[in-house]
Task: inverse folding
């Protein structure tokens, strides 16, 4: 006999326990995926014959518009990102999820009914896979925006009135826990985007007071574009911004893949560090040098369009290793998480030298000596001692062959 059509088959005590678990913030399920799995398993244990559960959460991120958490009895919960490009896809334009997002209203389609309208994309596929009922609802947030939850069953007759009431009873507590976790992820996304992952973790960890500084050892990266000022004077603003974005796309992925942290963009300049921490100096310097080579290749191979007729894009990178002060610097209510110190100043002077002598990658002697194999093989070559502005002792500088 079909239990989905019998209201007494739904366990009210189990539903009440699920609501309490949601109100408590889903203890024992720190990740969104494990929380979604816990919700769906608890609903199933209460007598709701779930064949599918979906949670669709908007976010604030430069590359993705939201995240999806899809649960199935056999697969568990699978999480994925939804990109902004998906907004233009025809299936999404006509999807029931988008409709609920925009309208802020519940939507139900009894797919087991032969006369059920298949007026949204995906519904015909759900029916062909055996779904007999589809239900989606908005999860309203305090600021007015909403996320969406969606449920399916393959039970004959679809969701009973009691099952539907149980699903609706968890919407408010699910909206609250979703909002709290979304705000936490939003903070992480914004900090990672604007100050970097490691600095962001320190800020979330409470290091937000001015003067909260610590001394760390790091390989330092300073780079800038050649002839940027002249280019900025003659280029339309939109083209200039597009140029900078493309230019930084050639550097940032290489830095991050090699364990570096981008601290700030300064016009066409970029400051990054590769913290030494538990790794050896030589291992960190090797990764920083590899990132510089990858960035050089990316700039060289990029499609700069009409800029090729103007000599393309050239840039310089200075690499150094030393002790820096890392933390909060600024005014009382406007801080910058950065690194300062003589080592950063020396890297800046070497970066200026790279333009004067026409070399892309330069390294200080301290940095180069951490890469003895590069020196032995001749891929890092001494270029001579140079007098640098503000530095009392001439500095031996190495260049990549």
Result:
């Amino acid at each position: 006999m079909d239990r989905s059509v019998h209201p007494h088959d739904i366990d009210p005590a189990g539903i009440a326990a699920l609501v309490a678990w949601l109100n408590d913030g889903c203890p024992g399920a720190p990740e969104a995926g494990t929380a979604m799995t816990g919700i769906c398993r608890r609903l199933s244990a209460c007598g709701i014959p779930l064949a599918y559960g979906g949670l669709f959460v908007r976010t604030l991120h430069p590359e993705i518009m939201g995240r999806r958490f899809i649960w199935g009895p056999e697969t568990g919960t699978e999480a994925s990102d939804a990109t902004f490009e998906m907004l233009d896809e025809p299936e999404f334009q006509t999807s029931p999820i988008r409709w609920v997002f925009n309208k802020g209203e519940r939507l139900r389609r009894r797919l087991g009914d032969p006369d059920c309208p298949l007026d949204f994309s995906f519904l015909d596929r759900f029916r062909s896979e055996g779904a007999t009922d589809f239900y989606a609802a908005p999860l309203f947030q305090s600021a007015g925006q909403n996320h969406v939850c969606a449920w399916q069953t393959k039970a004959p007759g679809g969701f009973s009135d009691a099952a539907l009431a149980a699903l609706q009873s968890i919407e408010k507590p699910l909206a609250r826990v979703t909002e709290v976790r979304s705000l936490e992820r939003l903070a992480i996304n914004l900090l990672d985007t604007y100050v970097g992952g490691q600095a962001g973790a320190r800020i979330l960890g409470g290091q937000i007071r001015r003067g909260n500084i610590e001394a760390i050892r790091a390989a330092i990266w300073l780079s800038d574009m050649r002839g940027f000022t002249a280019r900025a004077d003659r280029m339309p603003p939109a083209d200039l911004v597009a140029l900078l974005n493309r230019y930084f796309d050639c550097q940032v992925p290489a830095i991050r893949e090699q364990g570096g942290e981008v601290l700030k963009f300064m016009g066409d300049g970029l400051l990054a560090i590769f913290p030494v921490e538990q790794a050896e100096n030589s291992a960190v310097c090797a990764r920083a040098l590899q990132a510089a080579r990858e960035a050089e290749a990316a700039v060289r191979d990029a499609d700069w369009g009409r800029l090729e007729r103007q000599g393309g894009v050239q840039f310089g990178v200075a690499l150094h290793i030393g002790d820096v002060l890392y933390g909060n610097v600024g005014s009382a209510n406007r801080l910058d998480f950065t690194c300062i110190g003589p080592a950063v100043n020396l890297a800046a002077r070497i970066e200026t030298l790279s333009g004067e002598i026409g070399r892309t990658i330069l390294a200080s002697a301290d940095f180069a000596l951490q890469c003895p194999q590069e020196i032995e093989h001749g891929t890092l070559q001494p270029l001579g001692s140079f007098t640098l502005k503000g530095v009392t002792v001439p500095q031996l500088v190495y260049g990549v062959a």
